[in-house]
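Recap from last week: sequence in, structure out.
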Amino acid sequence: MSLENEATGNHLSMYKKINNKKNIEIFKKDINKLSYEESISELETILINVQDENISLDQIQINYIKGHLLLKHCEKLLKFVEQEINEINPEFFNLD
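Predicted structure tokens:
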């Protein structure tokens, strides 16, 4: 590989990293607005998309990033609900 091609490849690699970081921040903002059910629906859509044989490598990468962020968001929401359930005092349910 020539120095020119290597420099171009390094430049593209750095551009993709910067672009991915920007996309991640945008995805995080959008995903944090979603409910658990909406997040699961988005994950199902991603699953259908990655099963497409004609999907581009870039789209695979985007789906991976979004899927990972959606999964973390769902885990966070479930953990929050679990904490709320654990804080419920059983005496509140006494109807006496």
